[in-house]
Write a structure and sequence with these properties.
Elements: H1 2-8, H2 41-61, E1 64-69, E2 72-77, E3 92-95, E4 100-105, E5 114-123, E6 125-126, E7 133-138, E8 189-193, E9 203-207, H3 209-216, E10 223-227, E11 232-236, E12 239-243, E13 248-251, E14 262-269, E15 309-310, E16 321-326, E17 329-335, E18 339-344, E19 348-352, E20 355-356, E21 359-360, E22 364-366, E23 380-386, E24 394-402, E25 405-417, E26 425-430, H4 437-446, E27 450-453, E28 469-470, E29 476-477, H5 479-490, E30 506-508, H6 519-522, H7 529-532, H8 535-555, E31 561-565, H9 572-575, H10 595-611, E32 620-626, E33 642-645, H11 648-651, H12 653-663, E34 666-671, H13 682-693, E35 697-700, E36 719-720, E37 727-728, H14 730-752, H15 756-764, E38 772-774, E39 783-785, H16 790-808
Parallel strand pairs: 16-25, 26-27, 26-35, 30-31, 31-32, 32-33, 33-34, 34-35
Antiparallel strand pairs: 1-14, 2-4, 3-13, 4-10, 5-9, 5-14, 6-13, 7-8, 7-10, 11-12, 15-17, 17-23, 18-24, 19-22, 19-23, 20-21, 24-25, 28-29, 36-37, 38-39
Length: 838
Amino acid sequence: MRNREEGRRFAGAGPVPEGSPARERREPSLGHGPCAHAHGYGVWWLRCLSGLLVSAVLAWAAPEVRRVEVTRDLWLSSYRTEREGNNGASPKLKLKGIQEFFLMDFDPLPLRGQRVVRATLHLHPEGNESLGRITVSSVAAAWTEGRGTGYAKVSGASSFAWARTGEARWAGGEPDLTAVINGNGGSAWGFGDATARDAAGWQVVPVAPAVVQARIEGRSEGFCVMDDVGSEYTREGNTVQYRHFPNRYVASREGPRQTAPYFTLWLEAGAAEAAVAPAIAPRSPPAPVRFPPLAATATAQRTPRPVRVYDEFDDAAASGDFFAARNETTGFSVEGAAVRVLAADLPVTRFAMPLVGGHRDPLVPLADGAAPSSVGANARTYVEVHVPKSARAGRHRIALEVDGRTLELTFNVWNFTLPDRLSFIPQMNCYGLPGSERAYYRLAHAHRTVLNRLPYSWTGRVDRTAGPVIRPDGTWDWRAWDAAFGPLFDGTAFADLPRAGVPVDAFYLPLNENWPMNHERHFRGGYWIESAYDDAYWLEFRAAASRVASHFAAQGWTEPMFEFYLNNKVEFKRTRGNRWDATSAAWIFDEPVNTQDFWALRRFGLEFWRGVADAPGVRFAFRADLSRPEWQRDLLDGVTSVEIVSGALRTYRDRVIGRAERFGNFVAMYGSANSIGTPNAMPAAWCVETWALGADGVVPWQTIGKAEAWRTPDPLALFYPTESGPVPSLRLKAFRAGQQLAEYLTMYTVLSGESRAAVGAAVLADPALRPVFEKTSEADAGTARFTAAANPALADLRRRLGGWLDGQAPATRERWHDPRPARHDPAKVKPIAVLPPP
C-alpha cells in the first residue's frame, strides 16, 4: 500500500546532472469543501459542476504511476582480483563505494512512447548496513547477466573488465565498465539520498528521469547502481572510528520474490524533453610517423680512449662524440681521481661522485683545481657541459687530463636552440626544505625543472614563512613573504642562471580547507559538502582567495601557475591514532576515492574561481592529484585546470587527455624516481613517455633527501642537503635530459607539421620506451619500471630528432608550446544538482 500512496504524492522530477531541463509539476489537491454554504442553488450547482470538470481534466492530465519489475541484475567488482568476476545468479547485490556495484534492467518495450517525469528505485537492504546517497546511471553498452556466483569467471558473461568476458571489451576496447557509465560513452547519471528504511525494510532511491528515458528510447542498455558514500566514520569528541568501504547488501531478483528490486515510474504520453549527453567519439589512430634516420655526422667515433667514459645515465658511453643543441646541458663521467680541464670550447663543470651504499648518485661540485672526494679504484668524476645560446654550430673540442692521461672529446653543437620557457614541466614536489630554501629553487631551475613545496601540514597549518602574516585586526602583512618568494615569481632569483629571468613555472598557494578559515569553527558534519559548512565559511574562503588575487595582480606576477591544491585526507584520522585532530580534512582531497570526495573538490574549486575572478591577468589554477580518473565522472569538468594523474594515465589516456583538450587543462603524471642502483635512464624515459601520451609534465611526489641519504640510498633524494645548500643527483640530471628531449619532440612536431598524437604514437611504438607498471596494493599509486634498453632507445631518438632539427636550423623561440592551463569560469560549468528526496 505504501507504494500506491507514494504514487499519489507526485512531487515533481528532480534536476538532471547533464543540465537537461526537467519539468517540475505539482499534483493539485482533489478535495473540495461542501457547497451548502453557497449563495444560492445555481451558484452551488455551477461550482460543483466546475469542480467536477476540473477534477476530470486533472485526472486525465495526471501522470500514470507504474511499478516496473527488474528483469535482470548483475553484481560486479572493480577489485583487482575480482575484475573478471560475474555474480549474475547471486541472491544478493552488493554496494561498496567504487569497488562493488551492480547493473540492472527492465523490459523497455511496454514503455515506448512514454515520457518519464519522475522515477524511483526500490531496494531491500540485507543486513545491518543502510543505503545513503546513491548514483543510478544509464549503461551505454550491451551486457550479459550471466549465471556466476562467488566472482566466478564466466565466459561470455559481463564483468567489470569485459562486456563479454574473454570475448569483447567494453565499448570496443576500453579498459573497463567505467567507459559506458556515469557520463562516459554517452551515458547519463543522477544521484540522491535514499529514504530511511520503512517498516518492511525498504529504501527508496531517487532516479534522474533522463536516465530512465534513455533506456525506454533505446539509448541505454540498463542501469548501474553505485554507493556514493563509500567509507564512513563516527566521531565522539576527538576519537574517530573510520570504516573503510563497509559492505552494503540488497536483495536481488534471484532472492525472495517479496524483496526483489523494482522501479516506480511516473509517465506521461509523448516525446521526452531531456536528451542524454552525446557520446564522445573514440580517438582514431593517428597516421604512422617515421622519425628521420640518423644523420651522417652522428656516426659513433671508435677511436680508442685512454680512460673509461660513461654517459649522463652512468652507462658505458658508446662514442667519444657528443651532441647537443644550444642552451642544452649534458654530461658524462670518467674513471679517475684527478681530472683537470686542459682545454674546452664550451663551459665545463666538474663534480665528485661519492658512493652511497655502493652506488653513485650525489654529485658534489668541484672548484677549479680541487680534487674529487672519492679516490682509489672507484674514483669517478662527472663532467657537465653547457652549450651557450651564442655557441657556433659545429664541432667543439674538450680536452681533459685524467690521472695524468689526456682524454680528447668532441662536442658537436647542432644548429638550433632550446627555449628558455618550458614546453614540458618536470615538477619536483616536496613537503619541506631543510634550509637555504632559495638555493633549492635555483638548483631545480638550473636543471630545467621547477621545485614546488607544499606550504602546509596535515592539519592545514601553514608554515610560519609560507604565507602572509595575519594581524590581530584581520589585515594581512605580505612584506616578509614578498621578499622571500617575489623573486621566484618575477625571475630575478635566477638572473645568473642559463634561463636567466624566467620565473618558476608553478607554485602552491597556502590556501587550504583550514587556512585562513578555521575549519572546526564552521564544520557542521556530514559527508556532503553542500551542507557541511555554514555560509560564513564560504564567505571567508572567497574573501581570502580574493585577497591573494588582488595582491598578486598588484605585484604583476602573471607568469607562474599559482596552484590552489587540497592535499589532506580524512582517512589519516584513522591511520594517525583514530584522532579527529590528526588532519583537518573531512574528505579525501588528495587522490579522491568516493563520490563524496570528488563532490567536495568540485565545491572548493568553484568557490576558488569565484574568489579570484577579479584578477584575470594572474595565472591561477585549481589542481587535483588523481589516482582514479575513471571515477571522477564529469564532476570536475571545467573546475580543475591542473590534473596530476597517477600511472592510471596510461590506462585512461584518452579520457584524461580528451578532457584536457576540451577544457584547456594542464596534465602531468605523478610517480617516483628510480631507485638508486637501477637504470638512471628511467627519469628521462618517463618524461618522454609522458610527453608521448599527450601530457605536459611529470611529478615525482617527493624529491628532497635527508641527511641519512648520504649514508643509505634513498630513492626520494633527488636533491642532497649540505650545510651550504643542496647538491644534485645523477637522477635529477636524468630528469633534465628527459625535459630537453621533450623539447626536441615539441619542436619536431611544430616544424614537421605532424600531429602530437602521431609523434607520440611513434615514440610509444618502441617497446623500450614503454614501462612495466607495478602496484603492490589497491591503494598503491604504482611505479613504472623501464629496462636498461631505454637508454639506447633514448639516445637513438635524440640523435634522429637532433640531426633533423639541425638541418632545419629553426630560428630561436622563447617557447615552442605553452602548457599552462586555461582559466576557468565557474559561470560556464555545467550545473549538477542532488536529486530531491523521493
